[in-house]
């Protein structure tokens, strides 16, 4: 698979997070000649929070993680992730696989069973060969290293064309607090390789409920606002661990929230930039909606419209398709109050094509790699921003032409 | 544009509807060397009913038609349709265009202004050159013929690859009642050529409110249950005229309702069969949902999923993607009660791949032109059937590679 043209220049240097170690290994779950399993261990006292897919057919691992949220933070914690098999729609056998993996990790890492979290990503509906994973646990324990996060990012990739990482350092009360995260995802759901997975670590000190509510709030401005193909994975998981080893309490701290937001936004944008077949990074800004819910309807209708996305792929400033998307969204809209811009170029205003509209200027704008679609509904204060990519032949090739 | 591989063998022989005449002409709205305007005249006493797009950015023509529903049936009526320009998002000028066309038709056809209905289909946001249309009205009046419906079907085409018609004859109280309909549409919204338009005529006798409620009920089982790309036009219009000239009252008549349903189902399927880039005709049957609303959510989530649609294009029996679509739909679902079939072949049951699953048998099934996806949720009595097509390179080519 060719590297996405929207990929960052390089994987970033991620800081060591005191209290977290990593190791990756090649268990041969499905892929050959690459790593496909990672184990992260967190020091006793670490807070764990998580956000999960709302799919009604979510995987056994997701159900298990959800059941373990809020467990006693006095103990250590472990996160084990495999790629190559999603363990979704695998019935009772899938639940048994999760149990065996968790037991294997708990025994070796000396953490309680309810502090072992797992994720699986890959093909749906195939039995997970968990014995291949548990056979690697001794190696993964022996190889634990504070520097292993980049290797972990590579081990969780499926159809991703690049590994995804992001970090921020924020100084609070004169002390540095580190945040480092990794993610995988190439489409909200990749071909048979269902899943967006995100793991974020910090040495900040924060309780479970405070971290959980912060994570939910920031997810609604980051990972919940990206879309590649409108499809939702059975396995989407975001787990965050806070070791507290910095000694800095970040409860209700705005600077920490901003830094975490920056890491989450960066990782979510990297997932869009690795969207299947993507050649353009698209930002849809909706303002002036009657309320935020309406703004979100318009933004998502625009970002998910196959006609808008193919027009962007074709570098066609086809604003009639944006009018169509606004109209079908279900949000309150008034044709005569609507303003549509491409970047700063006004396309439509007062219910008609803007008098200053220039086909040449808009066509030139569409040749860029970053496309901003700005829709103002002229009704109220509701706003929403979502990020997506274009819909290209390559998306069809990846999803139709190759048998999975 | 090559003829869709799913096109019917030929345009059907449509019966003359007593009390309705047609003519088509070439006004040069946008296209050259083809007809692009049609005028249908209905005898005094004809009932008119209509169903329209719910888009918040619907066209001036749609708003005008909606305002005229329920007008006095004692007078005659006229329907004028142009292709090449949708008159959508054309501001106050668009409303003036509709008014001028309606005035021109009303004066010549001797019908009240509120009995003239217009539709426009084509590019969004360009001023409609209504003078080119009114300049043709004398010709259209002179050419009126009871046999002109096939010509009318051709005049309203935009990116359609075939003209669409359907008819039924039903005998009620020993007397024949005729129903004939035409449609255009190639995608719920075609590239810049927004619109699905449908015109149905009958010599049955039925009042406005009875016809309107019948039309709404049947639309929910036909045109509202097809999807090509999940996009909704600013101009979608279904108009039906009942001349009453057969002298047969069909109010609450089940046989008439069945025959009308057959015409609407046939026309709606023809729109799917002309879906942009379509190579497969797909039926999604959902049963066992908690209620009909949930069934519809699951059916539409499946039929609109780019991953399901590309799997069908690739002839890949990728049932994990159907599980994904069920999960994301928002409907109540229980993994362990779900049964998924391709035709009669069971893919998944009891929360896992069915023991009798055969990759070879399913792969062979996917090579057919008609694909039935049957999802049973095992929860209740809710059902829904929707029809769609696959998502292919040709869809991208039509919508991205050519500048509109």
UniProtKB/TrEMBL annotation, chains A, B:
Alphabetical UniProt keywords: Acyltransferase, Amino-acid biosynthesis, Arginine biosynthesis, Autocatalytic cleavage, Cytoplasm, Multifunctional enzyme, Transferase
Site annotation Involved in the stabilization of negative charge on the oxyanion by the formation of the oxyanion hole: residues: 121-122
Acyltransferase in keyword set: yes
EC number, as in UniProt: 2.3.1.35, 2.3.1.1
Catalytic activity: N(2)-acetyl-L-ornithine + L-glutamate = N-acetyl-L-glutamate + L-ornithine; L-glutamate + acetyl-CoA = N-acetyl-L-glutamate + CoA + H(+)
Binding positions for substrate per the UniProt entry: 158, 184, 195, 276, 399, 404
Localization annotation: Cytoplasm
Keyword Acyltransferase in annotation: yes
Task performed by this protein: Catalyzes two activities which are involved in the cyclic version of arginine biosynthesis: the synthesis of N-acetylglutamate from glutamate and acetyl-CoA as the acetyl donor, and of ornithine by transacetylation between N(2)-acetylornithine and glutamate.
Name of the protein this chain belongs to: Arginine biosynthesis bifunctional protein ArgJ
Native source organism of the sequence: Loktanella gaetbuli
